[in-house]
Write a structure and sequence with these properties.
The complex is a heterodimer of chains A (375) and B (407). By secondary structure, chain A is an alpha+beta fold. Chain A has eleven helices and 13 strands. Chain A has helices at 3-17, 47-53, 66-71, 73-80, 178-194, 196-206, 224-250, 258-277, 285-306, 311-343, 347-374, and strands spanning 25-32, 38-46, 63-65, 84-90, 93-96, 98-109, 112-122, 129-134, 145-152, 155-162, 167-171, 211-214, 217-220. Chain B is globular. The chains are: A alpha+beta (375), B mainly alpha (407).
């Protein structure tokens, strides 16, 4: 099967899905970044709709090719752009934002192929409120809808625009909204839960807390107090360290390439696991947590960077994200600590689970080091 | 995937019944996987020849172009607008593609804004609204039409249909009887019989329509024949006479092989009898149709001969994108939640809001099953009170209703 045939099959499949019988929707995403007067927009409009109002299938063979679409891009722009009015409102000042398309791409949604118009809208003033007036297709299809998503300060607002409610004014500077804070807390929790490297590193420090290394073997730790204190010290140091570097990185004080950071994180996981197999640092693992936690914090920061924050939103989101990471981490420890404390006497834990777990974590960490460094 | 391939190759000798959908399955699955990967990001196609989209095609679709040109040349010509709107409406109803129903509405919208819209504009717009399940708007337009011509048979029939679907049987029957004074006797009788069948006279209505169908089959146009046989099939199902129902569904499909509504009803009968392969054979070409895709997903979920998720995932994907408050799909979405996701409370919520819009046999069944599965005694009592009040009969309900007694 040649690449071309394969590609054709794939695209045909996307095309067969296009007959999914749903009403016509367009997807409009607007993004306002860092104290800017310029909105970045993406507008996905179904080819079927454009074929109806602009005409795309030039040779009437019931198939729309990229060539046919390309020839009509200008017509599409002049059809679509006048049907979207963006007005920047700042106190009493209102100004119309001038839209211009940068590039046109194609995307396949579940219900068919869409043209993707990436555009900028230049407003005279940075809006504190943005008014969106939407009239695409309403003259041809009264049941059409525009699904608007406005992203500002890393915070999303979604509105459905229809012929009955075709205009909406949205607050752009909502940096103190509790909703936004909550979304960052959630983001933090998810990040730690999905970031297996952070969890495994934490495991390598917490797992030995219920045992002590004596004469070449792990023995059960007798004192509950000692175990608890050990866990608390480890978790607190880890938290303090990664909070510090997360803040420094998010505020752009420190900046390291993500390949280096990610590989270093994998390396800390490896060292943590090896320290169980062949304990070098025995009593003061909290120092390890502190030092290596600094590296993990740099890793968290890359997530925040992906969220495209404006300077105004950074502090709040930083705090929210950090709280989320801590909550997520506490939840894990709350489950793990009692379980291993109960298991600590058993030979199974000390001779099997602990060493084989550490070996497995080491293997995974070596794999990560390889993958991340060569990425 | 390997497992699936293995099964398919083993069954190659059974290709006659098994082959087409099985092959499609594997190819489709692969394409879905690649498609998902390929579809992940907006892109610039590699060459001008890349096919991006297929537009719906048929001789009728081609006709749209000339009709649109005719209207564009003379935008105030009501007759041209009606021709185009009727063509859209016809395709929209046949394919249940909501875009065409919207186009039909939009084509007539300028004429509806006039202080005295023409009769046909009101009727066609009303029918388009009915097809989009916007029943209030449909009734308002039909009332306006009947104010102009009280004996207009199309307006009366459409109005009766809307009223019946909403469960307003007295009003529906009254509207049907007004048809008796028109030239359309046959239509009037069918109209009354189908209302009565919801009101404790199922067996009588069935016998009457069956006789009517036998006596006048030749005289009826094809679409009426298939519609009548489809009605008879549904009634036979409710009477618990599945072999008769199957015969009617087959007759309907001979008269109009593209009657997708009948195909859906027939598929439901096959699903009840766990005749999964026949469901695949009947519907595999129609996965583009949400309602029929759902039946494919349901058949797939029965796990015969192999449990898979292709259609299920496809339906789920469409379900997610169609999140608009969608009157036209409440029934199917409830069924998806109950029979595939196993989420009885979500199913009940959807079935209850669907019940506010439409009350056809499928909606009654859905609500009973969802209430039963969710162990919601008050919902179950509500629908049972409705069933008793209207003397609604349905053999497929018996298990669920008696199950309800136990809880």
């Amino acid at each position: 099967m040649s690449v071309r045939t394969l590609l054709a099959t794939v695209l045909l499949f996307c095309a067969t899905l296009s007959h999914a019988h749903k009403q016509s929707d367009s997807h409009l995403t607007l993004e306002l970044t860092a104290n800017d007067h310029v909105l970045h927009g993406q507008w996905d409009i179904a080819l079927r709709d454009l074929d109806y109002v602009v005409g795309l299938d030039a040779n009437a063979d019931d198939v729309i090719t990229w060539g046919e679409l390309r020839k009509q891009l200008h017509a599409i722009e002049s059809y679509a752009l006048p049907r979207l009015h963006l007005t920047s409102i700042d106190g009493p000042k209102r100004s119309h934002c001038r839209t211009a398309v940068n590039e046109a791409l194609v995307d396949h949604h579940v219900d068919g192929a869409y043209v993707v118009l990436r555009f900028v809208a230049a407003c005279a003033v940075r809006p504190s409120q943005l008014e969106v007036n939407y009239r695409l297709l309403f003259d041809a299809d009264p049941n059409h809808r525009g699904l608007l998503n406005l992203r500002s300060d890393g915070f999303d607002q979604s509105v459905v625009l229809s012929m009955e409610s075709s205009s909406v004014a949205l607050n752009v500077s909502a940096q103190n909204s509790p909703q936004q804070l909550r979304s960052f807390v959630t983001e933090g929790v998810w990040h730690i839960w999905h970031g297996y490297d952070h969890i495994l590193f934490l495991f390598t420090l917490v797992l030995p807390a219920v045992v002590t290394y004596r004469a070449g073997a792990w023995e059960a730790q007798t004192s509950l107090r000692a175990s608890s204190l050990d866990i608390i010290k480890v978790v607190t140091s880890f938290t303090a360290a990664h909070s510090l570097t997360l803040s420094l990185a998010a505020l752009d004080v420190v900046h390291l390439p993500s390949r280096v950071v990610e590989t270093a994180i994998a390396f800390t996981v490896l060292l943590g696991a090896l320290n169980i197999l062949c304990p070098i640092v025995r009593e003061r693992r909290w120092i390890v947590a502190l030092l290596f936690g600094l590296v993990h914090g740099l890793g968290f920061a890359s997530v925040l960077a992906d969220l495209n924050l404006t300077a105004r939103g950074v502090l709040l989101s930083l705090a929210g994200f950090n709280v989320g990471v801590e909550l997520g981490q506490l939840a894990i420890v709350a489950v793990l600590a009692p379980a291993i404390y109960l298991l600590r006497e058993s030979v199974l834990y000390r001779r099997m689970l602990l060493p084989s777990g550490a070996a497995a974590i080491s293997a995974l960490a070596i794999y990560w080091i390889g993958v991340r460094w060569t990425a | 995937m390997t497992c699936l391939l293995h099964r398919c190759s083993r069954s190659a000798h059974e290709r006659r019944t098994f082959g087409p959908w099985c092959r499609r399955f594997v190819l489709g699955g692969t394409a879905l996987l690649l498609g998902t990967l390929a579809c992940a990001e907006p892109f610039v196609p590699v060459s001008d020849d890349v096919v991006l989209e297929r537009v719906p095609a048929s001789p009728q679709h081609r006709q749209f172009k000339s009709l649109r040109r005719a209207l564009a040349a003379n935008p105030h010509d009501v007759a041209a607008a009606l021709d185009l709107s009727r063509a859209y409406l016809d395709v929209g109803r046949r394919t249940s593609d909501p875009r065409f129903l919207s186009y039909a509405q939009a084509t007539l919208a300028p004429f509806l804004k006039q202080s005295h819209p023409p009769l046909d504009v009101l009727i066609v717009s009303g029918t388009a609204m009915q097809s989009s399940h916007r029943f209030d708007e449909a009734l308002a337009l039909l009332e306006q039409a009947l104010a102009i011509d009280a004996r207009n048979s199309q307006a009366l029939l459409t109005k009766a249909t809307v009223l019946q679907v909403r469960g307003e049987y007295d009003a529906a029957r009254k509207t049907c009887s007004r048809l008796l004074t028109t030239a359309e006797q046959l239509v009037a009788i069918t109209c009354i019989a189908s209302v009565d069948a919801m009101n404790g006279k199922l067996a009588v209505s069935y016998e009457m329509l069956a006789r009517l169908s036998a006596n006048s089959a030749g005289a009826l146009p094809r679409d009426s024949r298939s519609w009548l046989s489809g009605q008879l099939g549904e009634m036979a199902v409710r009477l618990g006479r599945d072999p008769d129902a199957e015969r009617h569904f087959k007759t309907a499909l001979v008269a109009d092989p593209n009657d997708l509504y009948v195909k859906g009803e027939y598929a439901d009968l096959l699903l009840r009898q766990r005749r999964v392969r026949e469901v695949f054979a009947l519907l595999y070409e129609h996965e583009a149709q949400d309602a029929l895709l759902l039946r494919l997903a349901l058949a797939e979920a029965l796990g015969i001969p192999v449990r898979s998720r292709r259609w299920r995932d496809m339906y789920a994907a469409r379900y997610t994108v169609a999140r608009r408050d969608d009157a036209a799909h409440g029934r199917e979405q409830a069924r998806f939640e109950l029979d595939i996701n196993g989420n009885a409370s979500a199913a009940l919520r959807l079935a209850q809001s669907n019940w506010q819009v439409q009350r056809e046999p499928a909606d009654v069944r859905m609500l009973v099953r969802a209430a039963h599965a969710a162990h919601d005694t008050s919902a179950l009592a509500g629908i049972r009170a409705w069933i008793d009040a209207h003397h609604y009969e349905d053999a497929t309900l018996n298990a669920d209703i008696s199950g309800g007694d136990r809880t």
